[in-house]
Structures are given as structure tokens and as C-alpha cells.
Write a structure and sequence with these properties.
Blueprint lengths: L9 E7 L2 E7 L5 E6 L10 H7 L3 E6 L15 H14 L5 E6 L1 H12 L4 E7 L4 E2 L16 H8 L10 E4 L2 E4 L3 H11 L1 E2 L1 H6 L4 E6 L7 H10 L3 E6 L5 H4 L1 H14 L1
Length: 261
Amino acid sequence: MTSMIGPEPQRAATTAAGQRLSFLDFGGPGQLLLALHGHFGEGRTFTNLARELGDHWRIIAPDQRGHGYSDRPADFSRNGYIQDAASVLETLGLSNAVVLGHSLGGVNAYQLAARHPRLVRALIIEDIGAEVDDDLSFCLSWPHRAPTRSRLLEELGPSASYLTDAVREYPDGWGLAFSPQDMNASQRQLNGDHWNDWLASNCPALLIRGSRSSVLSAQHAKDMAARRPRSHLTELSTGHTVHETDPTGFATTVRDFLSSL
């Protein structure tokens, strides 16, 4: 039976390349699942998944660089993100983890498997491809600070619906837990052809696509699953944020894959 309450996560931190990297440890006696969020997210993105998986899996969920409570570095390179993920596992003395990633986190996950295969036992990739070409420059118009929380959400407009978890109160007003300039810079370095990294590992992999996604096309997802051995594709009736739009279906899909390992 699934535990719907689940453990309260403990916040901890490590240092990677001189930068503080904060992460949530949901605890429990289960096997390790490293969960990497997408742009604009943070470790607590995976709170619901941790509750659904109960004690069977111990979720470690970092606030990736420039997000949440982690430091804001000048470097948003591919190597930077990958070394951060490796540092979290190495700090905890862990290896052979299942690594789940959404969007930005998905590329980070399969690149971690390509470059540090001993750390990764299996992959769960949520709605991101082996070729990435996206534009986050729209976020540069978001306000830096607002006098109240409600005013900030008002100024964020339609984007507020997926940013409420990132809202923070600062000494000079209300703002977001990341810099839009950082997100734009990070996306530019995420864009590119990553087929070599996707094909470099051979551990079991689950690719989850939202059937209404504008980020990962149906054909591209099929090509990814077909070209990489031991890869399976599943679609759910959502957009890009599968875990948020259909949390129950997402958790069930993840749990079934984990049970098959």
C-alpha cells in the first residue's frame, strides 16, 4: 500500500565547485532515487512523488544551481549541472541510483548516466528530448520585486499558475526563488544536439511524454525509445509538466517502472 503521508524531508547542503548546493532528503529505508527538477522548479517539486512511493524509495531532490535555496553561480554549463548531481550522490556516499529528471533535469539525468555510469542504475526522463531548442526569454519581463505576494502574482500574469512554489518574501519585497536572467542563460546552454549522451548509456530507461507537450514531439520520443536499447516510452494525457498535471498517473507510471527493475 502507498503511504500518502510520507516522511518530512530534511534539508541539507553540499559544496560543488565552491558553490552551496541545497537538497531535500525525503528519508526512509528504501532504494535511492535522485530527482532533478526543470527550470523554475526546485527540490520540493517531487514532494507528492515521495509520498506516493512511500518507504520503498528514498528520494533525494536537489535545488539545482540557481534555483531554490542553492547558490546562484555565473556558470550554467552542462558540465556544471552534471557535476552538481554527481556531488550530491558522492557527498552521501551513494552510487547506483535511479535518476529521474524533468525537462532541464531530464537532460542532466541522461548526461550524468553518460559521463558517470557507475552512479546511475536506471533513468526516468520526463518530457525532454535528445535535441533541445527552446526559448525562455519571455521570463525576462517578469518583475524582480513587488510590495506584496498578491501584487507579484498579478504582475506575473498567466505564468503565476506554475510559479507559486517559487514565490519568496525578501527584505525588499516579494520575488522569485531564481533569477529570470539565469534561467534564460541556462536554457541557451541546454539547447543543442545531445543524441550522443542519450545513446551513451545502456541502463534501463523510461521516457514519459505528455501527449499534449509542445516540448517533446511524439515522433522524437518514439525515435529516442527506438534508438536506445532497454528504453520504454509511455505517454500520459498532459502537457509538458506531467508530474504536476497528472500526479497520480505520473506516480503510478514511475512506480511500475521502479518495480520492474
